[in-house]
Design goal:
Layout (H helix, E strand, L loop, with lengths): L2 E5 L4 H12 L3 E5 L9 H9 L4 E3 L6 H9 L6 E4 L6 H6 L1 H21 L4 E7 L23 H20 L3 E6 L1 E3 L18 H9 L6 E4 L11 E2 L1 E3 H16 L7 E6 L5 E2 H12 L5 E4 L14 H7 L7 H12 L6
Parallel strand pairs: 1-2, 1-4, 2-3, 4-5, 5-6, 6-11, 7-10, 8-13
Antiparallel strand pairs: 9-12
Helix pairs in contact: 1-2, 1-8, 3-5, 5-6, 7-11, 9-11
Bound molecules: uridine-diphosphate-N-acetylglucosamine.
Length: 339
């Protein structure tokens, strides 16, 4: 069976993808330096999948370490590259750390695919590349807008690095532009592990409901949307994980229409912040404390995906509902330490 390297495989989306790869019989090697997670995630993956992936604690941004690590896997069939820093605010404070880590690891991996063009690569991109899109739902050919943060810039430029590398060296890759991945595995054995105060909506909601945080602040109530709060396309992390496998298998089948293709990963449905709160209350039976607060700098008004290209090209659609996302996120939260 094919061997697939999952970088950042102990992170939120990476761990769910490792589970789905193992379920389909792939040999999975996880590379993760625990920059934003911990080693216990490996046990969660093993408990669900019934087998433990190989794990290497390696810093892929270190060219010598990365090269030495990959030298042991000359027959690698594919790389799903999740390992990256991802906090928007932190990237503004520490742009150089973001550029060193996110570009360094990508370039090091692409040097391997340049030498081993049979090895296919999936890159984690983001809907942040669209900024506030002029047309909704957002198609993949919508213009890429100037990045609002160094984090966003690592996704835009990362896609360009892929395209330049593929053109020059003949490897093939797919960039997946995620909308808002949330939820957790329905088994509650793996999920999101935010460090400190969560910046993203759903982990804040579940921590607030668990009594670990105060009331949720809803950022802005005067946006031009149906209830004044921002609209996003929230997608279950298991749906996101599955899309990576479909994308990789598209490349294995030689079906890519160009060296680097991009696909949106969203549900196609936008939800306001207030609708997310209602979905949480409905699916868990817990009342959430919340209040309106000032708008958050950098937030776009509305973003949700046109999902047709992914449906056609990957044969994939998101299947899990917002209520299921919230129920799974809550079940996971209840397994976490109570302080
Ligand atoms: C954010 C990032 C995005 C990144 C994504 C995944 C920004 C501006 N964008 O997306 O680049 O790809 O995370 O990590 O940070 N909200 C509240 N109260 C909160 C938290 C959030 O009202 O305490 C609202 C936000 O205003 C937004 C929605 O909830 O309308 C979703 O926020 P969030 O989960 O942070 O995701 P994005 O901002 O869409």
């Amino acid at each position: 069976m094919k061997t697939v390297l999952v970088t950042g495989g102990l992170g939120f989306i990476g761990s769910h993808t490792a589970v789905e790869l193992l379920a389909r019989g792939y040999q999975v090697v996880v590379a993760d330096n625990l920059a934003n997670t911990n080693a216990s995630v490996l046990d969660g993956i093993a408990a669900i999948a019934g087998k433990k992936p190989v794990w290497a604690n390696v810093d892929l941004a270190d060219p010598v370490a990365c090269r030495a690590f990959l030298a042991g896997m000359p027959d690698l069939a594919g790389i799903i590259h999740f390992a990256a820093y991802k906090a928007v605010g932190e990237s503004v404070q520490k742009p150089l750390a973001y550029y060193r880590n996110n570009f360094g690891s990508l370039v090091n991996l692409l040097e391997f695919t340049a030498e081993h063009p049979q090895c296919r690569l999936i890159f984690s991109s983001s809907c942040t590349v669209y900024g506030q899109a002029d047309t909704l739902p957002i198609r993949e050919d919508a213009p890429v807008k100037p990045a609002e943060s160094p984090y966003g810039n690592t996704k835009q430029v990362g896609e360009e690095i892929l395209r330049d590398g593929a053109r020059a060296h003949g490897f093939r890759a797919i960039a997946l532009r995620y909308f808002n991945p949330i939820g957790a595995h329905p088994s509650a054995k793996i999920g999101e592990l935010p460090l400190g105060v969560p910046q993203n909506l759903v982990p804040f909601i579940t921590q607030s409901a668990a009594g670990l945080r105060g009331a949720l602040k809803v950022f802005g109530n005067d946006y031009p949307t149906r209830d004044g709060t921002c609209v996003r396309d929230y997608i279950h992390v298991v749906d996101v994980a599955l899309a990576h496998i479909y994308a990789l298998e598209r490349l294995f089948a030689g079906k890519g229409s160009e060296p680097v293709e991009v696909f949106n990963l969203g549900t196609g449905t936008g939800s306001t912040v207030l609708e997310v709160i209602k979905a949480f209350e409905r699916s868990t039976g817990h009342k959430l404390q919340w209040e309106f607060a000032e708008r958050r700098a950098g937030d776009v008004i509305a973003a949700y995906a046109n999902t047709e290209k992914a449906a056609q090209g990957l044969g994939w659609r998101a299947e899990r509902s917002l209520d299921q996302c919230m129920a799974d996120a809550w079940r996971w939260q209840q397994t976490l330490p109570k302080k």
